[in-house]
Amino acid sequence: MAPTNQAAWLKEVNQKLEIRPSEIGKPGKDEILVRNHAIAMNPIDWMQQYGAYPPGPLPRILGNDIAGEIVEVGEGVTQFKKGQRILGHCTALNTDEPKHGSFQEYSVAPAFGCAEIPDNMKYEDACVLPLAISTAALGLFHKDQLGLDLPGAEQKGSLGSSEAVLVWGGSSSVGTAAIQLAVAAGYTVLTTSSPRNFSLCKSLGASEVFDHSSLSIVGDLTEALQKYEFAGALDAISTRDTQLNVAQVLAQLGGGKIALTLPATQEIPATVNVNMIIAVFILTQDKALGKAIYNDFLPDALKSGRIKPAPTADVVGHGVEHIQAAVDKLKAGVSGSKIVVTL
Ligand SMILES: NC(=O)c1ccc[n+]([C@@H]2O[C@H](COP(=O)([O-])OP(=O)(O)OC[C@H]3O[C@@H](n4cnc5c(N)ncnc54)[C@H](OP(=O)(O)O)[C@@H]3O)[C@@H](O)[C@H]2O)c1
């Protein structure tokens, strides 16, 4: 019997996702078709469903993060073959094409945004990474963002490195990816989280973790960062308050760059340079960076444990009919976990 594809469709903003069949997508040039076995939720999913941000044509299939098995490769794909287990960053947010959404059993993903995963890694763990990795990698390594050195094949020796990066929001999805990528690239990482997530941040390589709700946070971070050469900050949370805290730290250090995950507030001091990350640019505008991270770095880094699936997967159900509950659970708020549906 020919395979079928069930998908969770958004027909109207502010309405529940509707489960109905969708065509199985055909992979185009530099794309692969994947049978998804696990998908992860991201804040942009509920923002799109409930806030119409960013606006786009309807009906549509939302979702960014997949892990599964390759079913078919498109023209020009030489780095993958049918049957491989991969994680991938789907790009429907950018293309508006249903085949590029992750909220379905079969998705089409760009080969430069996919990485082979180790045999012993569960799909539900692997799927927590892609969008967070793209976001953190763009913020840390893109020349228009912090422009840091890329991680090489070997660990450069992170603890004790004289150059430090500040990651605000180390227990978030983007923050956990940023800690790991910056450490892999040889930087010392200082980060913030709630005390209950200090051990998570440390386990990923952060040298020091600070309570983000402490009244002395700006002074504490400034004092700690003064011991290093400052390489820049990634604010994974980027609310007005976090931006102003990070900007105050940088102003006291004499200036620097902040990579933001949300639009900048107006009140940033002039010595501080802020720039918003658009994660999908790693697969559209700077494919070389996408390839360097996903195809060249991640497969070995996942095998060796230099990059671990984080935050911890919280599997809410099996089957596309659980996606709506998963979106709603993320919208209600998470702390050091990633909401996942297995398929
Ligand atoms: N621009 C882009 O391309 C792009 C891409 C991906 C995501 N984003 C955006 O980036 C943001 C983060 O996404 P995500 O998926 O990483 O979020 P997430 O994992 O859902 O974030 C939850 C975490 O945020 C932490 N947090 C909340 N308020 C905090 C604060 N004031 N200081 C420090 N940590 C705080 C919590 O830490 P504790 O529980 O430890 O307090 C919690 O662990 C979202 O706004 C998302 O829309 C943007």
Task: Characterise the protein shown here.
The chain has about 350 residues and is an alpha/beta fold. The chain has 2 domains: about 5-130 and about 310-340, Quinone Oxidoreductase, Chain A, domain 1 (Alpha-Beta Complex), CATH 3.90.180.10; about 135-280, Rossmann fold (3-Layer(aba) Sandwich), CATH 3.40.50.720. About 30% of the residues lie in helices and about 25% in strands. It has 10 helices and 16 strands. The chain has helices at about 45-50, 90-95, 125, 130-140, 175-185, 200-205, 215-225, 240-255, 285-305, 325-330; strands at about 5-10, 20, 30-40, 60, 65-75, 85-90, 105-110, 115, 165-170, 190-195, 210, 230-235, 255-260, 270-275, 310-320, 335-340. The strands form 3 sheets. Strands 3, 5, 6, 7, 8, 15 and 16 form a 7-stranded mixed sheet that branches. Helix 4 crosses helix 5 (about 175-185). The longest helix is centred in the C-terminal third of the chain and has 18 residues, at about 285-305. It is globular. About 50% of the residues are buried. The model has no long low-confidence stretch (mean pLDDT about 95).
Notable characteristics:
binds NADP nicotinamide-adenine-dinucleotide phosphate, 16 strands, Quinone Oxidoreductase, Chain A, domain 1, 6-stranded parallel β-sheet, 7-stranded mixed β-sheet, 29% helix, Rossmann fold, 343 residues, 10 helices, alpha/beta, single chain
Residue windows where pLDDT falls under 50 for at least 5 positions: none
CATH hierarchy: architecture of the largest domain = Alpha-Beta Complex
Number of strands: 16
* Individual helix count: 10
Number of domains: 2
Average of the residue pLDDT scores: 96
Query: Could you state the CATH homologous superfamily of the largest domain?
Result: Medium-chain alcohol dehydrogenases, catalytic domain
The separation of the N and C termini measures: 19 Å
SSE arrangement, N to C: EEEHEEEHEEHHEHEHEHEHEEHEHE
The CATH topology of the largest domain is given as Quinone Oxidoreductase, Chain A, domain 1
